[in-house]
Amino acid sequence: MAKKISDSINRVDGSDKISGRAKYISDVYFKNQYYARTLRSEIAKGRILSIDFPEIPENYFVIDKDDIPGLNQMRTVISDNPIFADNEVNYIGQPILLVVGPDREIIAEIIDQIEVTYQKEKPILTLEEAEQKASLFSDFDYSKGDVENAFNNASQIITDQYETGFQEHIYIEPQGITAVHRDNKMFVFGSMQCPFYIQGALEDVLCWPEDRLRVIHTTTGGAFGGKEEFPSMIACQAAVAALKTGHPVKIIYDRDEDIIASTKRHPSLVKYKAALDKNNKVSALEINVKFNAGAYSGISPVVLERGIFSAANVYNFPNVKVNGKNYQTNSVPCGAFRGFGAPQTIFSMEMFMHNLARKLGQDPLKFKKKHLIKRGDTTSTGGTMHGQVKMPEIIEKITKMSNYEEKFNNLSENRGIGISLFIHGCGFTGDGENNIKGKITLEKKGEQAIVKVSSTDMGQGAETSLRKIVSYTLEIPMEKVIYKKVDTGKVPDSGPTVASRTVMIVGGLLRSAALEMKEKWKQKQSMEISKIYAHPDYLKWDNDTYQGDAYPIYSFGANVVEVEVDPITLELDIQNLYAVYDVGTVIDEKGLRGQMEGGIVQGLGWATTEVMETNQGQLMQSSMTDYKIPTIKDVPEIECDFVTNPYEFGPFGAKCAGELPFNGPAPALAAAVSHALSVPIKKIPLRPENLLKEIKNEN
Ligand code: MOS
Fold first, then answer.
1. Which whole number is the average pLDDT over 130-155?
2. What is the dihedral of CA 456, 347, 581, 479, to 10 degrees?
3. Which numbered atom of ligand 1 lies nearest the CA of 336?
4. 211-237 pLDDT, tens per residue?
5. What is the Å distance from ligand 1's center to 265 Cα?
6. To test the ligand 1 pocket, which listed residue (77, 340, 656) has its Cβ within 8 A of the most ligand atoms?
7. In sequence order, what DSSP letters do the residues of 95-119 get, joined into one string?
8. Which of 105, 196, 249, 607 could form a disulfide bond with 666, CB atoms 3.0-4.6 angstroms apart?
């Protein structure tokens, strides 16, 4: 019976042959399926005094906290987010209960008639307010060198600060999960990045052992981090409902519900205090990073860690002191989003360097080049920059490609050109990969090689890249490399599909398994080889002090943006974007170019039209009418190139790529706008009204 369920998905999925008709979870029909809709908190903070229900018709059910057999919490880094509100609510949109039944319209009618009486409490609405009230989730520190001494000997001390806003993922396919209780097991199907995260979350909530839980990935239409931890929440809700009703329970969000309920990118405030030496080089830097984490901590500590470990970006400052704080506010919880905290600190650092150069009367690019980190240098966390840093080559390539120098010095009024340099740490931070111990299995079956991993394809091309690595290594055609459906009952846990780790870590394991398999390929009809990841020996990390190699290796990039600013309306016309990346070795160039262009457009959206704000805890942009992602008309001409810089422990030398392109566009565009208007830029999104303020300040 169990086998039949996943087989039916396999067939409708079309994964064994290319049909162009992949089925998403919303398209998959489960016999006797019920639907569920969520009743959500209408207030930002308070207690639930009572809930009045209309008469619930036959075959309809209300599912809430009292139906949870195990723990009412979603397992993640900090498991503080309840599956259903337990008397108190902490943000508008927080799930209180589900109404479940066969007809979606009747469910909606029931939801409309449910009355919740609250006792309101005073919410914390903004990052500033949370800061004043010390409403804190996490507080992390690390340092390098002797900051105090450098400040005592400074020829000048500069302070500055930068802000970024919320961002919503807007994956093409909204969140969707179906839970099926059958044969004393719980099967969960859906749109997701991390099936084993969901399995873990179900263990806590159902209080069932792993062998009664099967999580099966269905075709996923984009994720960008938004399906890293969030699907665990709806999977647990659907599973509890399936248990109580005895029917498969399907939760499919429409776009508006998805925007209201799902996690967001953390808004940030980054403050700098810099000491300059007599040559106007930065001799010491204090960086204070503040993130608005929303109502629950969840995965935010790890987002903050990546944020602070990336805070020095591509630079080597001899003395650095970094503090990072996650604040609790009564707004929608923030979580994973492409770049995972790094885009915020890298935008801020790039603009800090740009504005500091302007202030000192220096060329921003020349000023940045004086501070670049090199191979063998000590990183801000006291580790070693192990890999070759090809930033000079990247800069040379991109400045030629864009004719940067010439344009920087000669552009007409209202036109500007800006450059950003950026880094991205590959894989999990610190000893994360050693703790996860990702495992892969490669199987030979006749002339076929079967890849068994938990890496999910969400449109980024994981399947193609991983199959390509195996196909090239075994020297067999791609068609002979079969990607096993990601199903926790059938594949080993090779770790979550996050942190730009898939090609480098999982692909690296597949490459070594394939090399071993190749030697015996002719002798054996069938065999199975498994590999478990361990970091190269030379890497050191102390997670208590944040000292050592924050990442095994880094990828790098540079962007140049050309913009024209309308002198009356201050609207931006982004004309050209140039990009050069070092991702080690390119595995699948077509797919990678897609990733880079997608990351660029998403980064430009974050920097421009993607305004998301709260008013009294309510999201002001809760539909795609108000929350505007770039359209095809907003996309500039993109020219993209790569430099090769193989990493010894990556498959064919590959490093990380998926998140990297997001780090560059915002600071390059902001630098271009700063150049066009001759004002400093300290905040994104770049709204005309904010630009007007900067112009007024400057004059
Ligand atoms: Mo990601 S933002 O590491 O899912």
1. 98
2. 10
3. 2
4. 999 999 999 999 999 999 999 999 999
5. 11
6. 340
7. EEEEEEES-HHHHHHHHHH-EEEEE
8. 607
Distance 661 CA to ligand 1 centre (A): 13
Closest ligand 1 atom to Cα of 226:
4
Give residue-wise pLDDT tens across range 65-123.
Answer: 999 999 999 999 999 999 999 999 999 999 999 999 999 999 999 999 999 999 999 99
CB 144 within 8 A of CB 378: yes
Residue 646, Cβ density class (10 Å: 0-12 exposed, 13-18 middle, ≥19 buried)? middle
Model confidence pLDDT, tens digit, residues 145-172: 999 999 999 999 999 999 999 999 999 9
Ligand 1 center to residue 497 CA distance, Å? Answer: 8
Nearest atom, ligand 1, residue 193 CA: 4
CATH numbers and ranges of domains, the chain: 2-121+175-252 (3.90.1170.50), 268-429+545-698 (3.30.365.10), 432-532 (3.30.365.10)
DSSP H or E run through 618: strand 618-619
Give the position of tokens 């000192």.
Answer: 360
The token duo for 449 is 């090689």
Nearest ligand 1 atom to the CA of 497 is 4
- Enumerate residues 6+ apart whose C-beta is below 8 A from 88: 45, 46, 47, 48
Distance CA(227)–CA(258), nearest Å, equals 11
Residues having CB closer than 6 A to ligand 1 are: 193, 225, 228, 336-338, 340, 498-499
